[in-house]
Structures are given as C-alpha cells and as structure tokens.
Amino acid sequence: MPNHTPDQISELTCFKAYDVRGKIPTQLNESIAFLIGLAVTEYLKASAIVIGYDVRHSSPGLVESLSRGISQAGAEVINIGLCGTEEIYFATNFLDTDGGIMVTASHNPADYNGMKIVGSGARPISMDSGLQEIKGLAEQLSSNISGNSSPAAHKNIRPDYIKKILSFVEVEHLRPLKVLVNAGNGCAGPAVDAIEKLLPFEFVKLNHEPDGTFPNGFRIHCSK
Length: 224
Hints:
Layout: E1 20-23, H1 30-44, E2 48-53, H2 59-72, E3 76-82, H3 85-94, E4 99-103, E5 112-119, H4 127-140, E6 153-154, H5 158-166, E7 177-182, H6 188-196, E8 201-206
Parallel strand pairs: 2-3, 2-4, 3-6, 7-8
Antiparallel strand pairs: 1-5, 4-5
Helix pairs in contact: 1-2, 1-4
C-alpha cells in the first residue's frame, strides 16, 4: 500500500453524501482520480476491483488514472468498459471482487463527472458507510506517489449480465410487442442491442447512439 506523504492536497469538494461528483477539471480531474484509486483500494484492503465508465468525454482519462491508482495500491483492475451503473453492481458480485467503481455523473451535465463506489457484494459506499474515510485517505495521499502498476484486465460481462436479467422472466411466454426505447445517448444503447436478439420485441430506438455531449438528453444544472 502507498505511504502517506506531507505533499497533500486541500479538501476534495467532489465527495458528496452518496458518491463522488464534480465539474471537470476544477473539482474532479485525473490527478484526483489517481488518489481516489489509491484510497479506495487501501480502505477496502482490496485485491481486485472492477471498474466501468459512461460515455462522457472525460471518462477514459479518469479511468486510466483511477486504474493506475488501484494498481499501484496493489490490487488487480478489471475493466468492463462502457457500461451502465447496474452492470458494475452485477460485475462486482459476479466476478467476486472486493469492490467496484463506476465512473459516471449520472444525470449531471456533460462537463461533470463522478464515481459511484461499492464494496464486496455490491454494497453501496456512502458518507455514513465508508466514503468519509475514503475522502480522508485521498486528502492525505500525494498525487506525486510513484510505483509500479499493471495493465487492467479487460473483461466482457455483458452476456452474463443479460442472462441474469432474463432469468427473472419466462421469455417463452412473452408476446411480440413494439417497444419505444430512448437511450438518451447514454450507455443503455449497447445493452438494448444485446437483449433485443433474445426477445420477441421490435424496438423503435430514439437517441440510441452513445454520445458524451448528450445532444438529445435531459440537461439538469446542479448547483451543489
């Protein structure tokens, strides 16, 4: 695990009650993502953490730095790629990892990003269940920490995720339907494409292609 150093940063304002969320790059950036990777791994005493990300343009850079922090703290990184938050919850259980991190800012505008963090069993981590401690660790650590890191292992869990979803219904008893689906240019489009092949439904798709600018989605301006 990394050592704490006197070269510390000021308070991280991107830590909220239930997740990490902030404007790019003033409140959240790649240096902070690296520290969060270190801190989450240290807090969970993790040997493996699964990560995924949404369509925001800032997500790949944050994921790369987050992965480096996790790896330098001594844990294996399993990257399931572009996905929905629910897929991280599934993967944390399915792959039996010590935790999971979804890089997303949910409904916030495109110039925001964030992270949803879960422990083993996909247990959500909020301020009253570990996020405060992770924040404290990240604020004590130095972004200048150097060390060895290993490349993330990339894994496609979507077929298993779709199989799990369909286990809750009797597909053979479903009747043909025409269904309107609006993915909001987010991560749902690829999942819809995967499940479409297994259902007797005709999907009419709106705003289906992932687009990190969310040209047709809802824009909610957040002051907090």
